[in-house]
Each structure stands twice: as structure tokens, then as C-alpha cells.
Design goal:
The chain is of the alpha/beta class and 383 residues long. The protein folds into two domains: 257 residues, Spore Coat Polysaccharide Biosynthesis Protein SpsA, Chain A, CATH 3.90.550.10; 89 residues, 3 Solenoid (UDP N-Acetylglucosamine Acyltransferase, domain 1), CATH 2.160.10. It contains eight helices and 29 strands. The strands form seven sheets. The protein has a seven-stranded mixed beta sheet, sandwiched between helices. A six-stranded parallel beta sheet has the order 14-17-20-23-26-29, with no helix packed on it. Keywords: ATP-binding, Carbohydrate metabolism, Glycogen biosynthesis, Glycogen metabolism, Nucleotide-binding, Nucleotidyltransferase, Transferase. Homotetramer. Its EC number is 2.7.7.27.
């Protein structure tokens, strides 16, 4: 059965700027918001947008990500005709097995896409935090009679040079793409969300195979070529929360956004739920002398100390007399007694022994996954 539109999620990135948090797992599998993984947001967007066929392109350390996605039932993507598929690089007679870039990853999975013969394909990044109805973007794509539509969001002008910038005409048509320009002409940043007419995109990939001209990356190669060929391309203006959590600072910021009173992401929105592979955990326990203020505390947590302006993931234990402030604690972390942690990100299954102090007001303190931190290893003022 032909699908009107299927989704392809690029989820193979190493995420090296996240440092210790991506040594063992791909960036889309990193914990977020107490109970989620980053990829939950794009998968939930697909499900809520009515997209029932999704390919997830993995590459770097995919084991945990693959296990988390499973059959896709948590996102209502376990379908007979469609569903979610994990697509890993493979050896073939034409080229090597690794994806060379975002566009090459799609090109290597043309057979999967052709199996559903879609009219449109939406290309998504698996490492952004946002809520978006792709069906509205598709409607815009049709109304503009566009061949390629790129979602954009206004960013502060002083940050525009960090992004791929779309320069547009008054009708929204794109006439120029600037990759991280030093002097940006606009502040419309690409969100890494693309809708293409599949026949048109397929034509570029087929011509690439015949001419030997490689279109490895959408931003660097394929989109500039399409602009050169005067392909009808439009920018879709997105209004709402969107954050690329590609650095430790941005990941910490996004977690802190969830506990702000003006939280615009709103995880409690029953009209647009964010689904996940929920862990079977007991209810949280807060001791009689504990104090929890303005924080997210997931199931399975045991809090005997003080927690303020922080995010605690499932299975976290905090001992008596300990103070956790302005911090993100990832799953199954064990924190002893009389510990002080301020403005930190603590990796999964780390152990913080009694009397440890992790504090540095100038930057985010980082504790690696599975690390054991002893009192003598930490000096007040920085870790």
C-alpha cells in the first residue's frame, strides 16, 4: 500500500560534544527530563502527526537505542502495514557500509523507502527537543507547491552564525542557504526538518549514481545543488520550543527549561503527549526530613536529603543531609550522605560517596557514567 508520507530519522550521530555522556551510547539515546531519551520527542511527533511508517537510521553504538525503540509499541508504531524500523549501515556492492553524511544515509536506504512508494518523505534529526505537527508542515508544502520544504525557527541574531541560515523572499521561497555565516542576512535557522517530494529527491540520488557526483550531506551538498537548479524550495516558519541539545550546556539548559514556571515545552499537554519506553519502577519515596522544591523527581527515586531546581531520573538515591541544587541527575545514580552537588550533570549509574562536594559556580560540573567519586578526589570550587 502506498503511503502519502513516511519519516526517516537520522539517529546515528556520535555526539562528541556531549563528551562522557556519549561514550557508550548514541546521542539520541541520552537520558533527558527524568524519564525520557532524546529520541522520544521526534518519535512522539511522528505518532502524534499521524505518520505510521518510520525508519530510524542508526550507526554509532546503537545497542541501547535499538533496545529502547524495540517494536515501537510505546509510540503506537507497531503496525502491520508500516511501523518503525531500525536501519543500520550494511555492506553492498556499490560502496562501504558507513553513512558518509545525512543525504548519503537516506540514499543508502532508498530500497526501504521505495517499498512504501511514498509521495513525500520527511527527514528528521533524532537529537532535538521539540514538539511539532508534521502534518501542518506537509499542508504548507502542498499549498506552496513546493518540491522541498525546510522548517526554520527564528534565533537570536547574535547566535545566527552558529546555524545553517535560510535567506528567503517575502513569499517564503528560499533563494540562498548560508552554513554558519559570519555575517548572517537573516536569523531563520534550519531545524534539520525537511519534507521532499520523493520522486524529485530520488531523481537526484539516481543521477548521483550515474554521474559519480556525491550528495553526501543535505546542508553542504544537496540543498545548494537544488537551489542552483532552481528547485522550488520554501521555508516553513515554526513557532514554538526547539532546542538542539548537542552540547553539555544546551542539554543542561533544556533540562532546566522543564522546571521553569514558564515552561513552553509543557510535558503535561494531554493533546500532544511525549511517549517513552517506560521503566517498571516503584513510586518515588521522599523521607520525612527531606526537602524537594521546584524539581522533577521520576519514579523509583529515594530522597532523604534536599533537592532544589533539579531533575532526578528514575532510580536515583539521595542520602541524608545531602544537597542537590541546579543539577541533572541521570538514571540509577547513588548519592551518599552529606553530599553537596551544585550546577552539575551526573551520568547514569555514577556513585557519589559520602561527604563529596561537587561545586563550581562558573561552569557545569560533569560526572561520568559509572564513575565512583570519592571525597578525596573532589576539591570545593571545581570538579
Amino acid at each position: 500500500m502506498r503511503k502519502e508520507m513516511i519519516a526517516m530519522i537520522l539517529a546515528g550521530g556520535q555526539g562528541s560534544r556531549l563528551g562522557v555522556f556519549t561514550k557508550r551510547i548514541a546521542k539520541p539515546a541520552v537520558s533527558f527530563g527524568g524519564k525520557y531519551r532524546i529520541i522520544d520527542f521526534v518519535l512522539s511527533n511522528c505518532s502524534n502527526s499521524g505518520i505510521d511508517t518510520v525508519g530510524v537510521l542508526t550507526q554509532y553504538r546503537p545497542l541501547i537505542l535499538n533496545s529502547h525503540i524495540g517494536m515501537g509499541s510505546h509510540w503506537d508504531l507497531d503496525r502491520i502495514n508500516g511501523g518503525v524500523y531500525v536501519l543500520q549501515p550494511y555492506m553492498n556492492e556499490k560502496e562501504g557500509n558507513w553513512y558518509k553524511g545525512t543525504a548519503n544515509a537516506i540514499q543508502q536506504n532508498m530500497d526501504f523507502i521505495e517499498n512504501y512508494n511514498p509521495k513525500y518523505v520527511v527527514i528528521l534529526s533524532g537529537d532535538h527537543i521539540y514538539k511539532m505537527d508534521y502534518s501542518k508542515m506537509l499542508k504548507y508544502h502542498k499549498e506552496k507547491n513546493s518540491k522541498a520544504t525546510i522548517a526554520v525557527i527564528e534565533v537570536p541574531w547574535d547566535e545566527a552564525s552558529r546555524f545553517g541560515i535560510m535567506n528567503t523572499n517575502k513569499d517564503g521561497s528560499i533563494y540562498e542557504f548560508d552554513e554558519k555565516p559570519s555575517n548572517p542576512k537573516s536569523n531563520l535557522a534550519s531545524m534539520g526538518v525537511y519534507i521532499f517530494d520523493w520522486d524529485m529527491l530520488k531523481g537526484y540520488f539516481n543521477s548521483s549514481e550515474m554521474t559519480g557526483i556525491n550528495y553526501d550531506d543535505f546542508g553542504h551538498d544537496l540543498i545548494p545543488k537544488m537551489l542552483e537548479d532552481n528547485v522550488g524550495m520554501y521555508a516553513y516558519p515554526f513557532k514554538g520550543y526547539w532546542r538542539d541539545v548537542g552540547t553539555i550546556q544546551s542539554l543542561w539548559d533544556a533540562n532546566m527549561d522543564l522546571i521553569n514556571e514558564s515552561d513552553v515545552l509543557d510535558l503535561n499537554d494531554s493533546r500532544w503527549r511525549i511517549y517513552t519506553n517506560t521503566m517498571a519502577m516503584p513510586p518515588q519515596y521522599v523521607g520525612k526530613d527531606a526537602n524537594v522544591h521546584k524539581s522533577l523527581v521520576a519514579d523509583g527515586c529515594s530522597v532523604l536529603g534536599s533537592v532544589e531546581n533539579s531533575v532526578l531520573s528514575h532510580g536515583v538515591e539521595i542520602g541524608k543531609g545531602s544537597i542537590i541544587k541546579d543539577s541533572v541527575i541521570m538514571p540509577n545514580v547513588k548519592i551518599g550522605e552529606n553530599v553537596v552537588i551544585e550546577k552539575a550533570m551526573v551520568g547514569e549509574s555514577a556513585v557519589i560517596e559520602n561527604n563529596v562536594v561537587v561545586r563550581n559556580n562558573d561552569e557545569i560540573n560533569v560526572v561520568s557514567e559509572y564513575e565512583v567519586v570519592k571525597p578525596e578526589a573532589v576539591l570545593e570550587g571545581g570538579y
